[in-house]
């Protein structure tokens, strides 16, 4: 029998009752399971073992001898079943001539280039991914620079620490407000010096700590 490929990217699901294998793509890990091939020697061996358990004695010894004979026959049948499974799975895989990996045709093979997508990535997919990455990078730069915040908001946020809810009734405050829209209670916003950061009265025009003029 010729050497059997797929020695690296497969798993053996065979039992005494039959043979079945799974073959995997070296790149994405997806794969295919071969069709189940019943084992005639396995079924015969089970029948022999059952008879040996019933009658015992010399027949039981024959059962153990049969197991050893069956094991050799099973291995031979196993190799043949594996070769058939390889041929069944082969149309779904291609071996890349550059990196020598077995990859699936469905997702990891660049048909136009004749190489796997690790060696020859899909240009359209890579460009789309690059555009998304560039957009995210620009967004992070904008956040770091604060350019998404208006000058008015910057001034407000650096001079006051706003409340999100009314201190009396707990109603949410959607925007900076002097009075609660639900209960009418005054909303006292803390104010902090733009120079030293100390808390100052909301009406203060100059910081009592450092004397800096407040907006």
Verbal overview:
The protein contains four helices and twelve strands. Helix 1 (40-55) runs antiparallel to helix 2. The longest helix has 33 residues, at 57-89. The strands form five sheets. Strands 1-3-4 form a three-stranded antiparallel sheet, with helices on one face. Strands 10-11-12 form a three-stranded antiparallel sheet. The chain has a two-stranded antiparallel sheet with strand order 2-5. The protein starts with 9 loop residues before the first strand and ends in a 15-residue tail after the last strand. The chain has helices at residues 40-55, 57-89, 123-145, 151-159, and strands at residues 10-12, 18-19, 21-24, 31-33, 37-38, 93-95, 102-104, 109-110, 115-116, 160-161, 190-192, 199-200. A hairpin with a 6-residue loop joins strand 11 (190-192) and strand 12 (199-200). By secondary structure, it is α+β, with helices and mostly antiparallel strands. The protein has three domains: 10-116, no CATH class; 120-148; 149-215, no CATH class. 14% of the residues are buried.
Give a brief outline of the structure:
The chain is built from four helices and twelve strands, in the order βββββααββββααβββ. The protein has 215 residues and is α+β, with helices and mostly antiparallel strands.
Question: What secondary-structure arrangement, pairings included, does this model have?
Answer:
Elements (H helix, E strand, L loop, with lengths): L9 E3 L5 E2 L1 E4 L6 E3 L3 E2 L1 H16 L1 H33 L3 E3 L6 E3 L4 E2 L4 E2 L6 H23 L5 H9 E2 L28 E3 L6 E2 L15
Antiparallel strand pairs: 1-3, 2-5, 3-4, 6-7, 8-9, 10-11, 11-12
């Amino acid at each position: 029998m010729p050497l059997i490929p797929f020695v690296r990217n497969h798993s053996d699901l065979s039992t005494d009752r039959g043979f079945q294998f799974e073959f995997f793509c070296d790149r994405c890990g997806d794969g295919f399971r071969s069709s189940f091939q019943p084992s005639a020697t396995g079924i015969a061996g089970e029948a022999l073992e059952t008879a040996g358990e019933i009658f015992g004695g010399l027949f039981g010894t024959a059962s153990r001898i049969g197991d050893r004979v069956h094991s050799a026959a099973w291995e031979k049948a196993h190799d043949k079943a594996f070769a058939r499974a390889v041929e069944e799975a082969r149309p779904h895989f291609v071996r890349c001539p550059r990196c020598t990996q077995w990859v699936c045709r469905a997702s990891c093979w660049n048909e136009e280039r004749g190489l796997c997508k690790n060696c020859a990535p899909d240009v359209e997919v890579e460009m789309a991914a690059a555009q998304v990455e560039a957009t995210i990078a620009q967004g992070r730069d904008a956040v770091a620079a604060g350019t998404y915040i208006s000058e008015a908001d910057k001034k407000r946020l650096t001079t006051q620490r706003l409340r999100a809810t009314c201190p009396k009734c707990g109603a949410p405050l959607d925007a900076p407000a002097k009075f609660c829209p639900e209960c009418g209670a005054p909303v006292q916003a803390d104010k902090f010096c733009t120079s030293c950061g100390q808390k100052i009265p909301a009406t203060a025009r100059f910081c009592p700590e450092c004397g800096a003029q407040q907006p």
